[in-house]
Amino acid sequence: MKKIQMLDLSPEVKLLWDKINKAIQEVVLSGQFILGPNVKAFEQEAANYLGVKHAVGVNSGTDALVISLRAAGIGPGDEVITTPFTFFATAESISRVGAIPVFIDIDPKTFNLDPGLIENAVTTRTKAVLPVHLYGHAADMKTILAQAEKYRLVVVEDVAQAFGAEFKGKKLGAAGNAGCYSFFPSKVLGAFGDGGLIATNDDHMAETARMLRAHGSTKRYYHEVIGYNSRLDEIQAAVLRVKLPELERSNEKRRQVARRYNDLLDDIPGITTPYEAPCAKHVYHQYTVRISDGKRDSVQKYLAGQGIETRVHYPVPLHKLPVYRGNRLILSKVEQAAAEVLSLPIWPDMENELQDYIADMIKFAINL
Ligand SMILES: *Cc1c(COP(=O)(O)O)cnc(C)c1O
User: Fold this and answer.
1) Does one domain contain both 78 and 159?
2) CB-CB contact of 57 with 39 (8 Å)
3) Same domain, 345 and 319
4) Which of 10, 122, 153, 267 is found 20 to 30 A from 361 (Cα to Cα)?
5) Which residues carry this modification: N6-(pyridoxal phosphate)lysine (predicted)?
């Protein structure tokens, strides 16, 4: 029986092996492992790619969020409006700086926060809005930015799943005060370990983020604030410098795989394939379908029995987790999504036969 995992990183590594190998060896021989020439060069290359003034490399996507919120002056008692349909790190970062995540419901088409609900959630303590570009598809930044301007809110974007994705012809992450990216190995631009990046056009934000990532100091041993040990390391930066020039191509391959899935799955009753807004360019970090009529779990179980790995992103909306349950919210659209979504295997070089097999098995399972 074939075993199909969510993600196969080996074709890309094989393709780039010589360059990656050379880049890693150079770092090792240089003896400079932390904040050296590769981090500096990668920050510049990433800033150019994203179309922003500054990029600051950090330890992880989570730290990118924490440091951006801190640098934007968000702290104890402040409220930050966000989506409950995301990886835990989004809300965890808000809590880590002492602020309170305020969850609002999602747009059921894109799974991203519904900006029409921001207005109702704003209080005198609201300081920021933190949209997530889930699965690699843009949240409605036009409306989010308009609401943020109206209520004078800071905008920090969680772009962990959407490096290279676009909204109205521009790369995501540059529209608000800061964009936060993750280089966790499974992300569309993955390192060989943890890593993250803050993108911003704001000089003060960039300067503060650089200070916070290095124990709150700009000058060695002269610490100005309590900061973090959160640097992107040289080996990760060297690997990312090899991978970044390939990203447009690999994201385009992901889009091709996604379109092929759409063709195979669109006609199956009970399945809703992902929506891609005309003004957005999806990067399909995840290819996530909806399976209605309460059949999601049985389809997933059947696929697992056929050797096909799938994932539910995410089974528990964050407002339902014990740590956030105090709020007693009822967010019906997100709760329905959590019961219906299923992410299928996807990677840039995924073979047609694997997709055909998965589609056949889904067709069979849904009619059981
Ligand atoms: C992966 C992810 C993060 C966290 O990134 P790390 O690099 O793993 O810390 C944050 N938010 C979302 C939506 C993510 O998918």
Assistant:
1) yes
2) yes
3) yes
4) 10
5) 187
pTM assigned to the model = 0.97
Q: Which residues are catalytic?
A: 187
For residue 58 and ligand 1, the question of a CB distance below 6 A is answered with no
pLDDT tens digits, residue range 36-56?
Answer: 999 999 999 999 999 999 999
Counting from 1 in the atom list of ligand 1, the atom nearest the Cα of 89 is 10
How far, rounded to the nearest angstrom, does the alpha carbon of residue 124 sit from its chain's CA centroid? 29
161 lines ligand 1 (CB under 6 A): yes
pLDDT band at 330 (very low <50, low <70, confident <90, very high): confident
Last residue of a domain, one of 202, 226, 245: 245
**Rounded average pLDDT over 150-162:** 98
pLDDT for the residue 1: 66
Which ligand 1 atom is the nearest neighbour of the CA of 183? 7
Q: Which residues pair with 219 in a beta bridge?
A: 222
Do the strands 79-82 and 100-103 form a parallel or antiparallel pair, or are they unpaired?
parallel
Question: Tokens in use for 18?
Answer: 């010589």
The reported pLDDT for the residue numbered 368 is 87
Residues 201 and 283 placed together within one structural domain of the fold: no
Q: Which two tokens stand for residue 110?
A: 């894109």
**151 to each of 16, 81, 126, 129, 214, how far by Cα in Å?**
47, 12, 9, 10, 33
User: Is the pLDDT assigned to residue 199 strictly greater than 70?
Assistant: yes
pLDDT digits (tens, 9 = 90+) for 283-292: 999 999 999 9
Q: What are phi and psi of 307, to 5 degrees?
A: 85, 15
Q: What residue type is 313 in one-letter code?
A: H
Does the Cβ of 61 fall within 6 Å of ligand 1?
A: yes
Structure token digits, residue 256: 């091709």
